[in-house]
């Protein structure tokens, strides 16, 4: 297979438009993928574009998750794909929460397991026309098309890594949307169980 002319390999902090993956989240991507460099994100994968899609979808909950960013390991390395997705949800609830998630104390609801994590936060912002209610935003990071971790994998380290990436993108999204108090998200991820 021939490498495309515009093919670039970048550091984790340069992914998803360059302002979504913190240095901590970049290190977390190495824990998840085993790699410290990644295929450059497509132009469509920026926080700005994801935020614009979210504002356009408001005030209706989305029926599924929408693409925010995809993370690929470089050609010739381990074949890993991560998807970062967003959704508008009616309200944060633990009723339908997969019991495999460890609940974390971030946003209105957060959880992590060895192959994915999510952070939900409430956003009041001038970008949403109806100020009477907050938008409930769900950011989900998951390993795509891959089996669950196998014996020998550090399950706790993987949970923390996924939660760190989900927090980083969530905080970037809250800032891009202009959410009051950054949607209640802390500057650093909270990884201990709630």
How would you describe this protein?
The chain is an alpha+beta fold and 194 residues long. It is 23% helix and 24% strand. The protein contains 3 helices and 8 strands. The chain has helices at residues 23-33, 47-57, 155-177; strands at 9-11, 37-39, 66-72, 81-89, 102-104, 109-113, 116-123, 135-143. The strands form 2 sheets. It has a 6-stranded antiparallel sheet with strand order 3-4-8-7-6-5. Strands 1-2 form a two-stranded antiparallel ribbon. A hairpin with a 4-residue loop joins strand 5 (102-104) and strand 6. Helix 1 (23-33) runs antiparallel to helix 3 and helix 2 crosses helix 3 (155-177). The longest helix has 23 residues, at 155-177. It is globular and about 50 Å long. It starts with 8 loop residues before the first strand and ends in a 17-residue tail after the last helix.
